[in-house]
Amino acid sequence: MSGVRAADWDGVTAVVLAGGLGTRLRPAVGDLPKPIADVGGRPFLSRIIEQLEAFGIRRIVLCTGHGAERVETEFAARRGPATITFSREDRPLGTGGALRLALPSTPGTLLVLNGDSYTAADLDAFLADYRRAGRIPTLLLVEVTDASRYGRVECDPSGTIRAFAEKRPNSGPGWINAGLYLMEPQHAASIPADRPVSLERDVFPVWLETGLRGHRTNGRFIDIGTPESYAAAADFFSALRSTAHEAPHA
Length: 250
Prior knowledge:
This protein is α/β, with parallel strands linked by helices. 29% of the residues lie in helices and 26% in strands.
């Protein structure tokens, strides 16, 4: 690990957005919520939680929605160094709406993560960069060989995000949003409450006006949002284990 001591995560709450409908993945997993889809014999979300714990994070809030009871039952009795609590939406609120709903139970700096993707990144370096830059909301960025499925994130040399490029076919390699964000509670409090809001479509484009940064990482990335990417997930984690990059002490 580098950048900050593990104890510096004491002031951070991880908020995992785990309530999406996962309609594209249903041909592979049926009605099973994406975060508890089996990957290599384990629920996908357990890998995210273990990564957070390995970096020293001790407060985790799971934002649940679709299949909330199944997700909560899976992790309510889990034993580990982190305390896990739940924020359940009673109707789909989107990524921004779910984060806003969870705000009362998220003290300190927020590390927000999508519950259907994993990046083998140095989270210590991510946090150090965020603090060094003045706690401006910051997105973790990863380079992929084909950005057409995701859309590109365009930054200047200082790391300030200048634009989000739309998805387009055959766009080639580029830097994309890896689905991990650092922000303060006052940033999340600016998200409208009690209605569906998308961080990616509704919030981040507005925050470009007041300041939004990107932190580039060379960590390997996967999401399980489609049957094709889900089918590749077990091999992805197997490769991480073989190179000792799955967790900072692996």
